[in-house]
């Protein structure tokens, strides 16, 4: 068969295969969310943290209509929908602008009512406000016309401001000649109201800590994501010397500040991890320096003690660097090593375990501590330990007020 015809045959076969894959992908089963009308879909702290505020309801039948809408959204749009009991206390006085005739700050309060009680329907579980899936679903919610919000001669709606919104819709259609929008056209993305404000606006580091991290090539303060995995912590004197070089170096380094040594260890380890192609960051504060790996927008869960649980995407980091896993003691070592290098690596590992036991005590059975040689090929290289247990942490950020100071 001529070469040209053979290539044409391969291209046609590939195109046919891709078309078949696209065709049959339509028939793959799609995971369905729970949509039992009798189930409890009350919003919790584990939902979100970002959701779509679809609708609110006021009055005696508000809770039931909110439940009906949440169930219908789950059934017809296959999305996670929740109901939330909104209570706002209006009886407390608020500080207004200016002062009264006695020089005191003005106290203001609402003219009518002492509280507002509504039921809200919120949709989705999104890691951040700019999530593309959140924006796509928001457009769908705004145009969706659920049966739960239809108003007829024999039905009544408890949707907040429903009559006013219908009047607005008629005016908009008359003026713009646009297609009628859905009853949830005012939907918007919001945060989970059960989570504290600090969850969404983490406290930034102070100016001193920001300054000592300034100019660091792989500073954790520059990482855009919210979470990372801490794999090595240095609080001074964390370097484990091998027996052959410890005496001379200790004599030379007595004047070195432990925190300076800790910062140096973190920096060199970060550079070495980056050199082998792994995303790593370093961070320094008043008391310690540490190294982290990876950048993530979400965690699996936050328990009642505030601990962050790793996602499946984070687990390879735990496997490679955690002492609980029987993986290579030097995670940064190349997979295939020449015989002489393997022998030297085994010797270093033996020395590491010996010095580690002297410094931290006997390692519990079943644990396999990890270490790294930095620089790896330097005969005077230092051996630094990784943490026994990697931990998921929320990455520190620069202070918002500190950012404003740049413009003053």
Verbal overview:
With 408 residues, the protein is of the alpha+beta class. The protein folds into 2 domains: 131 residues; 202 residues, no CATH class. It is 33% helix and 20% strand. It is built from 11 helices and 14 strands. It has a 4-stranded antiparallel β-sheet, with helices on one face. β10 and β11 form a beta hairpin. The C terminus is likely disordered.
List keywords for this structure.
single chain, 408 residues, alpha+beta, 2 domains, 4-stranded antiparallel β-sheet, 33% helix, elongated, disordered C terminus
SSE topology sketch:
Blueprint: H1 3-25, E1 50-57, H2 62-77, E2 81-89, E3 94-99, E4 105-108, E5 115-126, H3 132-143, H4 162-176, E6 188-191, H5 197-200, H6 207-212, E7 227-234, H7 246-252, H8 258-275, E8 280-284, E9 289-296, E10 301-302, E11 308-309, H9 315-321, H10 339-360, E12 371-374, E13 382-385, E14 391-394, H11 400-405
């Amino acid at each position: 068969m001529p070469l040209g015809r053979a290539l044409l045959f391969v291209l046609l076969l590939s195109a046919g295969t891709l078309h078949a894959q696209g065709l049959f992908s339509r028939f793959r089963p799609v995971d369905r969310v729970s949509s039992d009308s009798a189930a409890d879909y009350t919003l919790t702290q584990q939902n979100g943290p970002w959701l779509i505020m679809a609708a609110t309801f006021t009055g005696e039948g508000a809770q039931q209509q909110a439940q009906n809408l949440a169930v219908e959204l789950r059934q017809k749009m296959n999305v996670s929908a929740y109901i939330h009991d909104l209570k706002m206390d209006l009886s407390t006085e608020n500080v207004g602008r200016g002062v009264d005739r006695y020089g005191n700050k003005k106290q203001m309060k609402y003219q009518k009512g002492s509280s507002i009680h509504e039921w809200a329907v919120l949709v989705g579980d999104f890691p951040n406000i700019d999530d593309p899936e959140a924006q796509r679903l928001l457009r769908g919610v705004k145009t969706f016309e659920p049966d739960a919000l239809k108003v007829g001669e024999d039905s009544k709606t408890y949707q907040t401001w429903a009559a006013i919104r219908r009047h607005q819709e008629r005016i908009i259609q008359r003026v713009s000649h646009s297609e009628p929008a859905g009853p949830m056209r005012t939907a918007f993305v919001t945060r989970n109201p059960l989570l504290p404000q600090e969850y969404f606006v983490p406290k930034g580091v102070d100016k001193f800590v920001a300054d000592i991290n300034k100019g660091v090539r792989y500073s954790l303060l520059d990482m855009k994501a919210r979470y990372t995995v801490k794999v090595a912590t240095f609080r001074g004197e964390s370097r484990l010397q091998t027996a052959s070089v410890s005496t001379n170096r200790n004599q030379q380094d007595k004047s070195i500040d432990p925190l300076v040594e800790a910062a140096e260890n973190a920096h060199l380890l970060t550079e070495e991890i980056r050199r082998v192609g792994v995303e790593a960051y370093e961070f320094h504060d008043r008391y310690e320096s540490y190294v982290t790996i990876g950048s993530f927008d979400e965690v699996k869960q936050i328990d009642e003690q505030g601990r962050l649980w790793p996602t499946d995407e984070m687990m390879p980091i735990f496997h490679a660097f955690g002492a609980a896993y029987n993986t290579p003691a030097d995670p940064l070592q190349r997979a295939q090593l020449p015989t002489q290098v393997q022998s030297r690596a085994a010797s270093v590992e033996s020395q590491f375990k010996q010095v580690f036991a002297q410094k931290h005590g006997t390692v519990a059975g079943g644990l396999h501590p990890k270490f790294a040689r930095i620089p790896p090929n330097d005969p005077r290289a230092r051996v630094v330990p990784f943490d026994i247990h990697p931990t998921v942490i929320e990455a520190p950020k620069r202070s918002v007020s500190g950012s404003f100071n740049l413009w003053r």
